[in-house]
Write a structure and sequence with these properties.
CATH superfamily: Electron Transport, Fmn-binding Protein, Chain A
Helix content: 10-25%
Shape: globular
CATH architecture: Roll
CATH topology: Pnp Oxidase, Chain A
Distance between the termini: 65 Å
CATH class: Mainly Beta
Number of helices: 5
Number of strands: 14
Radius of gyration: 19 Å
Order of helices and strands: EEEEEHEHEHEHEEEEEEH
Number of domains: 1
């Protein structure tokens, strides 16, 4: 018998306010209407192939920028950048601060990169800048916008899920598998994780996964080929 009792009574019902069981932190950079940069920490993100799904408050400055500009950069900080991320935690690029965020203690900040102590560097295919210190930067364009919780009048219009297509993946050499061009070394890449509003790093690898026996090339999809046709930032077109 388990030390926790029989297998039928291991679970107890709870109603947590949030269900953030642990996802990588993303510093999402977008361009404001006046051309300046906005940088927002978020963790409601996941990837399938070279597509990403980003969940954002509809009234956030990042969502407003994405709807207008249709492009962004997904900067992925490692666990050494926890302090930089936390300096952005209760800030917004929206002025005036939306009521919901004001109740939670957010304040307006116009220079997010400066506050975080991160360096803006030009992107190759989008107008928003990359954060130089983040080991991974993925330049992306918006391909779809999906409202969340439209079935509920109380939540309707409050959250948007952006489907983005990655156009460039740029990484620090330090996290590549030595001697390869396209492979990230998971033992060198230490993403910053958000779990129930707390910041964590990853522990050491527990064991090799059976999935690791599948060559990465077998997952390559048509978006990779399409990414090679993306024009320079500001052209708004694909080039051969």
């Amino acid at each position: 018998m388990s030390t926790y009792g029989t297998h039928t009574d291991l679970h107890g019902r709870i109603e947590p306010g949030i269900l953030y069981f642990g996802t990588p932190v993303v510093l999402l950079s977008t361009r404001n209407e006046d051309g300046t940069a906005n940088l927002a920490p978020m963790s409601s993100a996941f990837w399938l192939g070279w597509r990403g799904m980003l969940g954002l408050g509809a009234r956030s400055q990042t969502a407003v920028n994405l709807l207008r500009e249709r492009e962004c950069v997904l900067n992925l900080p490692d666990d050494s950048l926890a302090d930089a991320v936390d300096r952005l935690a209760l800030t917004t690029g929206r002025d005036p601060v939306p009521e919901g965020k004001a109740r939670r203690g957010y304040r307006f900040e116009g220079d997010k990169f400066g506050l975080a102590g991160l360096t803006e560097v030009p992107s190759e295919t989008v107008g928003a800048p990359r954060a130089a210190e983040c080991p991974v930067a993925m330049e992306a364009v918006v391909e779809g916008v999906h409202p969340l919780a439209e079935d509920d009048p109380e939540q309707r219009g409050g959250i948007l899920v952006f489907e983005v297509r990655i156009q460039r993946v740029l990484v620090h050499d330090a996290i590549r598998v030595p001697g390869t061009d396209d492979h990230i070394d998971p033992d060198r890449w230490r993403p910053l994780i958000m779990s129930f509003q707390q910041l964590y790093g990853l522990g050491p690898r527990l064991r090799e996964s059976a999935l690791a026996r599948i060559p990465e090339r077998m997952y390559r999809g048509p978006d990779i080929e399409r990414s090679r046709l993306a024009g320079p930032a500001g052209t708004g077109a694909l080039t051969a």
